[in-house]
Amino acid sequence: MSLLEKPPGSCQTRAMNNPPDLRPDLARARVPDAARPGQPTIGMVSLGCPKALVDSERILTRLRAEGYAISPDYAGAEAVIVNTCGFLDSAKAESLEAIGEALSENGRVIVTGCLGAEPDYITGAHPSVLAVTGPHQYEQVLDAVHTAVPPSPDPFIDLLPASGVTLTPRHYSYLKISEGCNHKCKFCIIPDMRGKLQSRPAHAVLREAEKLVAAGVRELLVISQDTSAYGVDIRHRVEREHRAHITDLARDLGSLGAWVRLHYVYPYPHVRDLIPLMAEGLILPYLDIPFQHAHPEVLRRMARPAAAAKTLDEIAAWRAVCPDITLRSTFIVGYPGETEEEFQTLLDWLDEAQLDRVGAFQYENVAGARANALPDHVPDEIKAERFERFMEKAQSISAAKLEAKVGTRLEVIVDSIEEDGATCRTKADAPEIDGNLFIDEGFEGLRPGDIVEVLVDEAGDYDLWGRF
């Protein structure tokens, strides 16, 4: 996988590059294959980031509990739900295209998700959709399904798997700990679509995690819009002996015996309290941090904390406590007003920070975002040229870091087995975002979800190869 081809990271980039095997319209949900005679059947198309994927899983689990069958294709469904992304104009276009395809292939379509916050935009393009609901409006989605396809449950036959309906492989699962965001970044409209931070009770998150691990999940991917702010909105409330604070939650999750990977972590000062947990092996030594830029004036125009120098000090402190920590981030190039000098500062900062996993995307306007009104928008050809320069530097850093791993032994988790080899990931690699480690000899006895130790014998720009 090349980061130049698939910039990884936050909601913004994942929306444009949703992995095919996470698309429920392309990959079967893990539910019984055959519908019973007369059982109502619903299809699902899920676009956008992992947080939207969790929403899709919750909707499908509720429908399955009410006696609906889940169709893997348009033809077998009596209606189709399209869970949309609405962050960027390109993501909106993809969502409208998916709605149009579902209408063409099936004809009965219910729309939900982030783009659902703009119902007139959807119905203006596709007036024949049955209903439009906004993000995480589960009850309204169910009401629309009930109207379009009345339920007909049979409690003696329609048994729901203990882990619910999942759209990811059996051995890993996304664990959403909160909704919304309290930040007011000028390029982002997520708070407008999903509201302010709403944290789940810690005991509820832990109970879900325990059920997932009991069902065979070996890796928990903790996600939210702002993971390190978890619990701030509920004053880090203690319920059933569990405190709603990211450090406490990470420690609790780390006690379950699965890999625990943290995504979308803003570098607040208290993040340093997570690093000893990584050094102890309780959670994976991995932080996904949306730095976005390095020049203080660009960060100020973004309405983001403008302390890039202090961030370098913080990174050095993290590495001093946990030398094996993997840092990944996503950046915006060509933000309005970005000068060549400011962009060069970003390149120099990246040289000094030596981040392990880096992605970028070229700035584009988002309807409703305050950044649209900023002066001095960067021409498209300059944005494209800066993107290429940025990714070339990121690629060279990645290649050097991976080359240094040759000859070392690493623990990996097996994702899939094909005829010619096994595709695995190290602790430094998140699924569908980062690189892979491939084993092409002696892999026949492996199974997805196995965690094994391998010797690294070859490195590329983003991937590794190894053997037992």
Automatic annotation (TrEMBL):
Q: Which cofactor does it need?
A: [4Fe-4S] cluster
Known catalytic reactions: L-aspartate(89)-[ribosomal protein uS12]-hydrogen + (sulfur carrier)-SH + AH2 + 2 S-adenosyl-L-methionine = 3-methylsulfanyl-L-aspartate(89)-[ribosomal protein uS12]-hydrogen + (sulfur carrier)-H + 5'-deoxyadenosine + L-methionine + A + S-adenosyl-L-homocysteine + 2 H(+)
Annotated ranges, domain Radical SAM core: 167-400
Task: List the InterPro entries.
Answer: Elp3/MiaA/NifB-like_rSAM, Methylthiotransferase, Methylthiotransferase_N, Methylthiotransferase_N_sf, NA-bd_OB-fold, Ribosomal_uS12_MeSTrfase_RimO, rSAM, rSAM_horseshoe
Cofactor comment text: Binds 2 [4Fe-4S] clusters. One cluster is coordinated with 3 cysteines and an exchangeable S-adenosyl-L-methionine.
Q: Which PROSITE patterns match?
A: MTTASE_N (PS51449), RADICAL_SAM (PS51918), TRAM (PS50926)
Q: Where in the cell is it found?
A: Cytoplasm
Span of domain MTTase N-terminal: 40-150
Q: What keyword terms does UniProt attach to this protein?
A: 4Fe-4S, Cytoplasm, Iron, Iron-sulfur, Metal-binding, Ribonucleoprotein, Ribosomal protein, S-adenosyl-L-methionine, Transferase
Biological process terms from the Gene Ontology for this record are: tRNA modification
GO CC, one annotated term: cytosol
The region called Disordered is annotated at 1-24
Q: Spell out the molecular function terms from Gene Ontology.
A: 4 iron, 4 sulfur cluster binding; aspartic acid methylthiotransferase activity; metal ion binding; protein methylthiotransferase activity
Which one Pfam family would you cite for this protein? UPF0004
Q: Which residues form the TRAM domain?
A: 403-468
Q: Which residues bind [4Fe-4S] cluster 2?
A: 181, 185, 188
Q: What is its EC number?
A: 2.8.4.4
Q: Which SUPFAM superfamilies match?
A: Radical SAM enzymes
The record lists [4Fe-4S] cluster 1 as bound by: 49, 85, 114
Provide the family line.
Belongs to the methylthiotransferase family. RimO subfamily.
Give the protein's function.
Answer: Catalyzes the methylthiolation of an aspartic acid residue of ribosomal protein uS12.
Q: Which PANTHER family match?
A: RIBOSOMAL PROTEIN S12 METHYLTHIOTRANSFERASE RIMO (PTHR43837), RIBOSOMAL PROTEIN US12 METHYLTHIOTRANSFERASE RIMO (PTHR43837:SF1)
Any idea what this protein is called? Ribosomal protein uS12 methylthiotransferase RimO
Organism the protein comes from: Algicella marina
